[in-house]
Design goal:
This protein has 2 domains: about 280 residues, no CATH class; about 80 residues, Elongation Factor Tu (Ef-tu), domain 3 (Beta Barrel). It is about 5% helix and about 45% strand. The longest helix is centred in the N-terminal third of the chain and has 8 residues. The protein is globular. The model has no long low-confidence stretch (mean pLDDT about 95).
Length: about 400
Amino acid sequence: MAIAQGVSKETRFKRQSAKGALAGTSAGQVLRRETSTFDLQKEAYTTESEITKKAQITSVRHGAKLVNGSVTGIFSPGTYSDIVSAILRRDFASVTSITGLSITIAGSGPYTITRASGDFLAGGIKIGMVVRLTAGSFNSNNLNKNFLVTNVTATVLTVIVLNGSTMTAEGPIASATVAVPGKVTYVPETGHTNIYYTIEEWYSDAAVSERNMDVRFNTAALSLPGSGNAKISLTALGLDQTDDTSAYFTSPTAETTTGALVAASGALLVNGTSQAVITDLSINIDGRGNAADAVVGSNIRPDVFRGKVAVSGTFTAYFEGGTIPDLFRDETQTSILSALAAGSEANADFVTLTMSAVKLSSSTPDDGETGLKRTYSFTAFFNSAGGAALANHATTIQVQDSAA
């Protein structure tokens, strides 16, 4: 009998149409991973408290089931987008390109992209989105580049070039198009999705398929170091697991091939200002999932319940003075915007994470014979000043994924 090996195992996932039934066998998606475990656990009951002349435990029984899931991986565009959207409870959606514009480009970094008429806000452009100029007789220095929006009004986008290259001042340029690559999601105020997955762990060398049903992903922890690959860690809870000797998903989509996201290839803004001193950032998105209590007459729990979506994290920065510490001391509402690129190309794949309402909850210094740092913890919260045709969504966190 063959011993299963990690390189031969595939983790496959697909949305279920509803709770209580495995997803259909067609399609599914193979998930890139560092590690993936879905552990079937059962309550166990013994007669420990019973006293008999045998002076021994006389019975062991199994009770309610629960599947504990954990996935870790290198964060890459498109790979985890469906799962992240399920945690945020809103599917990724496209933002319609804005066409037929007359555009003028000015500045020396940050730059401004100004339209002669119309309204970028009504067109759905928000702070934290990446846009591209995809049509119009622009200088090649301005076409098809990733521009990170740091501010937006009805007629003006303030942007930085994500790969650090320059733009050329020009305009007005007629028949221009401003496009929003990929798709965008955020925690909505209403209409929250309610997603369950079937997760298959297929061990081809051992001919074993473990099928996990009614799986909810509950948390996504992102680790974004100044040096090295960005990482993601997911947790999940499921209600049941079965097995078989043949694969469940008959024709799963192959693993994604997008490049690894690297924080060094991107931008990080705190309080609207680009930061060159932050050495690492972590973000934890917690959907607060909890398994229901067991019920009489069934070893399957009724559901995995959800609470509010909470977003928190930490970042560490070299200490340059009181600007960031003062945000903590004065309890000032601020913002954090992280844009991660999968390459240095002008139109590289990317993911952006925007928290437009944030407060710092600590400012912890270190000491030593090197550059001094401080570590700041933060909590993001619902931005009641956001909404339709405004510069930010009314949400806790917004995510854009160029490959979603």
